Amino acid sequence: MRIVSYDELRDPRDFLELMEACFGEISVPEHPDLLQRHDERRKHEFGFGVYRGKTLASFIGVAELKVRTRSGKTESALGIHHVATHPAFARQGLCRRLFDFVHDRYCKEGRRFSFLYTSRSLVARSLYCELGYKEILMSGTRAPRALLILPPTRKRPERNRTRIADLAVAERLFAEATAGEYGFVVRPHGWVLSRLKQWKMKTDYVFIDRDGYAFTNPDRFGRYIEEFICRNRTAYVRLLNRIIAATRGGLVHYYVRDPILGAIYKERGARFRYETYASLMVKPLTRASFPSVFGPRLFQSPVDQF
């Protein structure tokens, strides 16, 4: 079985066909190209696959993740994404062999841990467990998800205006808020703009205040809030009012970590959902112990998903 890199695929459309067959996902060649161009975690290699005949039968994406350990040092870890096996070639051990290949390759390059996101409802999760992956606690996962339905109005949504220069405020505030956290808290200069570019999002989707910011993603029927960090209650209220003024329908905020913000949502009649099926899993590639390196839990934000 010959394993090829993404750049060695016979045709980039083979990846599109595989993603559509497995997930119904439209992944035109432009999408991986944007990720490689603007996401510092995927610049070196996007992933590996194996063919059966003319069909890309299985694929695993890889990323280089920068993580902060309990010692305060930064190290590289392996990130797994876009795991897929074509239904016509399921249960032939192709995915397992790709996992063995990437685990061995990146262990030799000095990676001590491999991370992946999944869901407790996915069939593939049992394979991950067999391969040695274990679910880990993430800082904030016990925090609720807030759901706020906005009252109908005939007023036009107010447009948020954010300049590229303003995005540096979000970077400073994130570094300040996560100074004592471990895990996915290492973000290079310009990370906000790079995340926007890789998903073809606008700078106006980020709401900036001198004391806070909110990274949002609008939807046809509302808006998702993926990260919301402020220094105080006054800043939360100011920014939330601006977000509401720019939104029609409803708001969904993942992981309301700050109890101050949770109280504000409660005052405005939001509903809260505590259960989650999302799961972050880790596998040691060496004899290193995850708890001794990172502690009992890891900081993670939806903005950091890979």
TrEMBL record:
Residues 1-154 form the N-acetyltransferase domain. Pfam families: Acetyltransf_9 (PF13527). It comes from the Bacteria. InterPro entries: Acyl_CoA_acyltransferase, GNAT_dom. One of its GO terms (molecular function) is acyltransferase activity, transferring groups other than amino-acyl groups. Gene3D superfamilies: 3.40.630.30. This is GNAT family N-acetyltransferase.
